[in-house]
Amino acid sequence: LGFAKNRLNKFYNPKLHKAAPKHELTEEERIFVNNGGTPPPTEAPGGIADTGVTAFAQIRVHNQLNTDAAPAPPPATWGAYQTKDETSNGVISMIDLLIKDLEKEMTEAKTGENEAESDYQAMMGEAAAKRTTDSKSLTEKAGAKADLEADLQAHSGDHKATVNELMATEKYIASLHAECDWLMQYFDVRKAARADEVDALMR
């Protein structure tokens, strides 16, 4: 759009036209030209539509047969004559409006991009902090798990020893119970035998 506006100013507002910078040969191009090469193409000639014509001039056709005849009426036009400034201002103003709208959209896009980048940076910071917290929590939980596993192994050993002790106690109780049953079963017989022995001794 800026190029089109500058192109229009070249014809309608020459004071506002910004000429293109002159093409300077590079070191390679200068060496090439100095050795007989063809220089790079130059810009097209100026003038109206880059044709080299700076002005149009109309020459009245001389009629040798009727030189005193009145000139023909002027052709019909589209309206009153307007200067080139008046006709070009509308187009240039429209281009200015398009440029302003484009700059506004680019500014809004840039602002949106900056906000999105800020949100992204904030999200990445929060994610990093959360990862740090989660890593610390995971380390603490891993330590607690190791302690619990050590306690479980210790309790498992104690439980095994206790079970063995309980089994030995139950076995001892069973033997005592069997002995008591035997004593109860033969108590009367042994009592009678003891009484007989006492009677025998008394005699």
Please provide a written account of the structure:
The chain has 203 residues and is mainly alpha-helical. Helix content is 67%, strand content 0%. Residues 59-66 have low confidence and may be disordered.
Structural class: mainly alpha
% residues in beta strands:
under 5%
Q: Uncertain runs with pLDDT below 50, 5 residues or more?
A: 59-66
Distance between the termini: 151 Å
Number of helices: 4
Number of strands: 0
SSE series: HHHH
- Give the C-alpha Rg: 59 Å
Question: Level of helix content?
Answer: 55-70%
**Main β-sheet, in a few words?**
none
- Overall outline: rod-shaped
What's the overall average pLDDT, rounded?
77
What is this entry, summarized?
This protein is mostly helical and 203 residues long. Helices cover 67% and strands 0% of the residues. It starts with a helix and ends with a helix.
What are the key terms here?
mainly alpha
What are the SSEs and their pairings?
Elements: H1 2-12, H2 27-34, H3 84-185, H4 187-202
